[in-house]
Amino acid sequence: MATLSEKANYLRMINGEVPEYVPRSLWMRCSVRATGFGQPRDLSSMEFTDAFFGIPMVVEPNSGAIPKPGDFLLKDIRQWRDVVKRPAIFDEVNWEMMSKKDLDERDPDLLKFGGGSIGNGYFMMLTYFMGFNEALIAIMEEPDEVKALLNFLLELNLELGRNFLQWYKPDIYSMGDDIAHERAPFVSEEVFMDIFEPMWRQNTAIYKEAGLPAEHHNCGAFYPFVKHIVNMGFNAWNPAQPTFNDLPAIKKEYGNKLSICGGFESNGMVSWEHTTEEEIRAYTREVMDTLAPGGGYAFSGNVMGNRENTNIAERNAWINDEYEKNMYKYY
After folding, report:
1. CA 289 to chain centre
2. For an engineered disulfide with 300, which of 25, 130, 139, 181 has Cβ 3.0 to 4.6 Å away?
3. pLDDT digits over 265-313, tens only?
4. Number of domains composing the chain
5. How far, in Å, CA of 201 to CA of 191, rounded?
6. Sign of dihedral through CA atoms 55, 58, 63, 69?
7. Has residue 317 been placed in a domain?
8. Where are the alpha helices (DSSP H) in the chain?
9. What DSSP state is assigned to residue 237?
10. DSSP reduced 3-state for 1
11. Cβ(46)–Cβ(52) under 8 Å?
């Protein structure tokens, strides 16, 4: 029977040691995350981006908060200085008072994840301001202006990060920036290295210098950039979707240097109406059998969709039950 808490077991995994049992991915199960503004554990990306920059947001039942389609703030990247301003709240925060309140109320059994970043990363924030089409055109036509905007965001992120490190003392640094779709990255590796890698690296450096393990979030076909997050010092990657990412090969190459948190295809056969309970349970075991041996893995699996759909809730219960039945058998 396990002797380590869920938190301690997860920290063992992300620090490169073989865990006592297969951890559950804790990226979404934390008591403090992102920034110290207000109640960070309750602060949604919609509230964050709308309140800070005035980006119009809407809520989709299957995907959460997204920028309002067709209603973007920034039409021309060359005009970003007239549109994107330093949020007033940056100069109004009482970090000491706010952190004391948040930390007094936190669950000590949950990890303190700290990102100290604005919204959803650098590529995604560019698309929040402009939409995907205009953002990608700006990257091609005005890369220097894109860099200038992202460096403005970087300075805000570093300011947040230093305060978060001082006042919240997080257990883990987390960063997300969904720069890939299901089949391929949105940008070439050359563009990534020129524009985005320096932002990610500088943002990450202050946390690594503080001695924190780091977890990176990126959906889709992220495989061309995995080596770069390892070089930056990231210790884990979620959700590590198996479609178009050769996860066994990545695990073999990096071992416990980069833990895979997830490895579960939520949009695949588990979401099909005709898939049976045993097929879903068998797939859950297959994922664990493939990725859990040797450590460097945390389980995260679910069916994507409207959470009020009872069929989805039932499937997620099967997945979670199968994980709990098998979590002790590998170590």
Report:
1. 24
2. 25
3. 988 899 898 999 999 999 999 999 999 999 999 999 998 776 667 788 8
4. 1
5. 15
6. negative
7. yes
8. 6-14, 45-53, 80-83, 95-105, 122-130, 132-141, 143-167, 189-191, 197-209, 226-232, 247-254, 277-291, 310-326
9. E
10. coil
11. no
What are the backbone angles phi and psi of residue 207, rounded to the nearest 5°? -80, -40
Asked, for residue 44, whether it belongs to a domain, the answer is yes
Phi-psi region of 221 (alpha: psi -120 to 50; beta: other; left: phi over 0): beta
Mean pLDDT over the full length of the chain: 88
Q: Under a CB-based contact definition with an 8 Å cutoff, are residues 214 and 172 in contact?
A: yes
25 found inside a domain: yes
Q: Please state at what angle helix 122-130 crosses helix 45-53, rounded to 10 degrees.
A: 60
Give a yes or no: residue 331 inside a domain: no
Domain of residue 73 covers 6-326
pLDDT attached to residue 43: 35
First-residue to last-residue Cα distance in the chain: 11
Q: For 209-239, write each residue's pLDDT tens digit.
A: 999 999 999 999 999 999 999 999 999 999 9
What's the CATH number where 239 sits? 3.20.20.210
In 3D, which of 267, 263, 254, 209 has the Cα closest to residue 228? 254
Over residues 106-139, the pLDDT tens digits come to 777 878 877 767 777 999 999 999 999 999 999 9
144 compared with 304, residue with greater pLDDT: 144
| Mean pLDDT for the stretch of residues 314-323 | 95
Contact 251, 291 (CB under 8 A): yes
Tell me the one-letter amino acid at 228. H
* The 3-state secondary structure of 96-152, one letter per residue: HHHHHHHHHHCCCCCEEEECCCCCCCHHHHHHHHHCHHHHHHHHHHCHHHHHHHHHH
Residue type, 112: K
* Position 38 pLDDT exceeds 50: no
Q: Does residue 53 carry a pLDDT above 90?
A: no
